[in-house]
Amino acid sequence: MPAMPLEIRFLQCWPDNIRRKRFEIQEVSLDPMESADTARSGTSASNVEIKQRVLSLDVLRGLALLGMLLVHFQYYVQGSGLWSDRIGRLISFIAEDRFYPLFAVLFGAGFTLQLMRWGGRPGFVAFYLRRIAALMVFAVLLIGLTGYRVLESYAFWALPLLAIRRWSNRALVILILVCAFAHPAVDFATWHWEKRQLTLEQSNAKVEKEIRYWPDAVAEADRLRDEGNFAKLVPFQLQKSFGQYLHWKYYVPGDPLLMFLFGMLAVRFKIFQEPLRYRKLLTAFIVIGVFAGIMSVFADVIFRFGSFGSFRLAQAARKLTYAIFDERFQGLAYAAATLLWMAASPASQRLTRFLANPGRLSLTNYIVQIAILEIFFASSHSIIPLNRWGTLVGVVLVFALQIAFSRWWIARFRYGPLEWLWRSASFARWEPLRREQTRGAAV
């Protein structure tokens, strides 16, 4: 069963060769899905600073990968029971909808590093657009083959970053507020319009149809997969996912852009680089995140559709509550705690390396995780029947293998396999991959 998008709960040409080489060497450490490789260009203070910052990003990417893997495994559980349900509720509280927002923040941070470092260079806009187009190609393939949706929203909402890259911090904060409250405002406005134009029954029927859009789509996709009817499954999954682009509500800014903006501000203030300087702010994020995660559970109980009469009004009230108390902030709390722990505890360095290695290959590892789940567990007649305890074993086994593979690969190659393809598509030429090639190019 494919991952559900965050919105479901709310229903919803280059310089000459010499200049080009200098551009590439500086660019290496600033890729949103790649890590620093500064040793080859010296160990100046600025290079050390960049390396430390990117290391923290890699660690957080690894954390997000682990959290998403834990959640994704739950989609494939067969059967139930008392302890199975308890474990499921616990995982839902600590992980579900917590790590995709963090993944988006890190994408936003990576894109911002690019915009800050290369934004004024000739040819940057063409490079940036090719990069986004390449990410969308990955997204289309992922949706068509597996039904997992998230990369397409990252590719789409990375476009506005190009337009707002020179905005002031104050303007970005205002835009964050707009993103947080735009969807509740739209639903309240829709409720006011519908109560004048439609009967209550007609309005409620529209909301029910919107609510059922993704569950019904997932159920149909599961049926086609079980039948082995992939000729219909692939176009069905693409049509359902990209059919959203035909509805005006998709263009209302929301979670993806909101998380990108958090990442943009974190880069501007060097929070990833100097977390202890922002100890109080990060501590506040931890407290707010945990509180928001707890309150989001009560919001589900308080704002039940039947208690409002109007489903649209209940939906608007829930969205307004989620704009303040949302699980996504709990994911940011995990990131804040990890940053403080890394900065304050020397003992953290050895442990965080286990997260940093798969984090450097985050695009590759993310898609490999999905491929493993889809191949072995997707069908109701899966190769390996999976219960709740099996998911926990699976998470440990798959992530351990990814740590080992990532460490082996990084020792030999500059980028992960898919990161290299993404980078080559962005530069519109094949980039050197093996580390021996890197040293030769830098001389």
Written overview of the protein:
The protein is mostly helical and 443 residues long. It has one domain (8-442). Helices cover 73% and strands 0% of the residues. The protein is built from 21 helices and no strands. The protein has helices at residues 8-11, 17-27, 45-74, 82-94, 99-118, 124-146, 151-157, 159-164, 169-197, 200-211, 213-227, 230-242, 255-268, 279-302, 311-324, 327-344, 348-360, 362-377, 388-410, 417-427, 435-442. Helix 3 (45-74) runs antiparallel to helix 5, helix 3 runs parallel beside helix 18 (362-377) and helix 17 (348-360) crosses helix 19 (388-410). It is globular and about 70 Å long. Residues 1-53 and 438-443 have low confidence and may be disordered.
Write the layout of secondary structure elements.
Blueprint: H1 8-11, H2 17-27, H3 45-74, H4 82-94, H5 99-118, H6 124-146, H7 151-157, H8 159-164, H9 169-197, H10 200-211, H11 213-227, H12 230-242, H13 255-268, H14 279-302, H15 311-324, H16 327-344, H17 348-360, H18 362-377, H19 388-410, H20 417-427, H21 435-442
Helix pairs in contact: 3-5, 3-17, 3-18, 3-19, 5-13, 5-16, 6-7, 6-12, 6-20, 9-13, 9-15, 11-12, 14-15, 14-16, 17-19
